[in-house]
Design brief:
By secondary structure, the protein is an alpha+beta fold. It has a domain at 2-8 and 48-193: Aminopeptidase (3-Layer(aba) Sandwich), CATH 3.40.630. The chain contains 7 helices and 7 strands. It has a 7-stranded mixed sheet, with helices on both faces. It starts with a strand and ends in an 8-residue tail after the last helix. Bound molecules: coenzyme A.
Length: 223
């Protein structure tokens, strides 16, 4: 069983008392690069990264960076898989919602998303599907800048709710999204049935229809 968490981001509104509603405080520090042992200047360093729209020449580089980040064991996303087709299809159909972070002519991060309009609904939704930053640049606010670009773009397009999802144990991603203002997490449970076990059972030669005929007593219209 796999559990994912879906987060919702709505533009923060003033609370009933006119006070700005506060986001949750985030204290998690679980990452390969343990932020708690990072020097303060490293944590706050802003590398010279440019954020721009995804272009055709970026596709291979984005795919290979994603291969390092979205390995099947670390991010076993069941309804989407990270493969070349995924990157190409985002480029072909959603390129206005896809951004890369570039530094020294290298892609160091990306955000790939989409917007969704439902029939008979005035509301437009945005979904940030893939977000990743190269390991050595974590905690340098590269993802934050990618996210802000994506958010501004979808807001200009009229999106009113923004969704993201993550594996429930991806604490880094959850901490990041909470920091960005996401809340209202909803759990999503995936169940699995191992079909190879069923295949191992001995098979009878009889087809299911033959089995049914053999089981039912012979009847005739006159009886
Ligand atoms: C999640 C991810 C995109 C964050 O990228 P990042 O560039 O390191 O994040 P930022 O530097 O912009 O972080 C902004 C804020 O988020 C929070 N945050 C980010 N990583 C955190 C961590 N490991 N622990 C606690 N808080 C964290 C912090 O509040 C941080 O601000 P601060 O450093 O000033 O405290 C990155 O860790 C990643 O690529 N992970 C692998 C892929 C993945 O899981 N993607 C998400 C699901 S698609």
């Amino acid at each position: 069983m796999t559990i994912t968490v879906q987060f919702e981001y709505a533009k923060r509104k003033k609370g009933c008392l006119g006070k700005e509603e506060e986001g949750e405080k985030v204290t998690l520090d679980k990452d390969a690069m343990e932020p708690s042992v990072m020097p303060e200047d490293r944590r706050k360093k802003r590398p010279p990264v440019t954020i721009r729209q995804l272009e055709i020449d970026d596709l291979a580089e984005v795919f290979h960076l994603g291969e390092e980040l979205f390995t099947a064991d670390r991010v076993p996303n069941l309804y989407r898989t990270w493969d070349p087709y995924e990157v190409v299809s985002f480029y072909l159909s959603e390129s206005e919602y896809c951004f890369v972070a570039e530094m020294d002519d290298q892609i160091v991060g990306f955000a790939l998303g989409t917007t969704i309009s439902k029939p008979r609904s005035a509301w437009k939704y945005a979904h940030l599907v893939w977000l990743g930053v190269r390991g050595d640049l974590r905690r340098s606010h590269v993802a934050e800048r990618l996210f802000e670009h994506f958010k501004e773009t979808v807001m200009e397009e009229g999106a009113r709710i923004l969704f993201v999802d993550s594996e429930a144990d991806n604490e880094t991603a959850l901490a990041f999204f909470k920091k960005m203002g996401f809340g209202n997490p909803k759990e999503h449970i995936y169940l699995s049935l191992n079909l190879t076990e069923r295949r191992k059972k001995p098979q009878s030669d009889m087809s299911p229809s033959k089995k049914r005929r053999a089981a039912s007593p012979a009847t005739s219209p006159s009886s």
